[in-house]
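Supplementary Note 3. Input sequence used for the single-chain structure prediction.
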Amino acid sequence: MNSFNYERATAPEAAIHSGSAHNAKFLAGGTNLVDLMKYGVESPATLVDINHLSLNQVVASPDGGVTIGALVRNSDLADHALIKNQYPLLSQALLSGASPQLRNMATTGGNLLQRTRCYYFTDVSFPACNKREPGSGCAAIKGYNRIHAVLGQTDKGPASGETCIATNPSDMNVAMAALSAKVEVQGAHGKRTIPFSEFHRLPGSTPSVETALKPDELIVAVTLPPAKFSKNAFYLKIRDRNSYAFALISVAAGLEMDGGQVKSAGLALGGVALKPWREPDAERLLIGKPATIEVFKQVADTLLRGAKGYEHNAFKIEMAKQGVVRCLTLASQGTTEGTQA
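The predicted structure, written as discrete structure tokens, is reproduced below.
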């Protein structure tokens, strides 16, 4: 590990000032950043410790929603009464991630910035990685790509050249996407709000740029709108083992039911793209429709349209479709205990 400077910030303004220096990184739980430093993927000149900032509260918002401080630990958020009762989808997703020890350290803001677990990215002995070395290529495209993306590899459709087929590894992000969260950030020029759908970026021509954050900005909170899916929500995670493993496919489904019909819906896929995958057309297919397998299959086909598999991960497309149907079925039945398969 390379040597680095360490600074402890006690106010957001001080953190932003220090974090805007060349090659500085914010340090919260460190569950991802420290690993990447050990691997040689990240070599910050300065670590700005933000753990002493007052950003660790979960507060009900005046509009009926909730504001989650960026430093709220994943375990605390998953177990918070307001989240468990009003946003069970988020609690389920958090509890399916990592291990209890990691959840005790990991933060809400850090989870938003969690980087891909693509082995070609984390192993610096592979020279071809457009995330680490822009323009060097993507070794995963013709390599071992079992865990990689089947959606969003390019902005121009499957026929154009892909620059990166990595996936976003976060479970929390999938639930946040389905819940239409917003990310509150603060920078040298003030505060702004980023819709969750715009926070993470697809690779396009700049796969090394992963979020809409500016270099001098600090995540201070995530806000959720008033709860609509507290009674009908389900998080499904399909992975190789039942603990301490990243999703091959995950599905976050929230439904607002009116009798046997769907009044509104939030639906997102994980493990399939460099950002949580949400398709408004798929959700619109649910509105005003009965909660039936036939409707859910149409939704799944729409959500996965344009999907492209590779040598080792083509199975993900059908797995994702089946996962969507299963997750929507369980959500519509009022099952609020997430599961893994």
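The CA atoms of residues 300 and 321 lie 5 Å apart. The chain has 13 helices and twelve strands.
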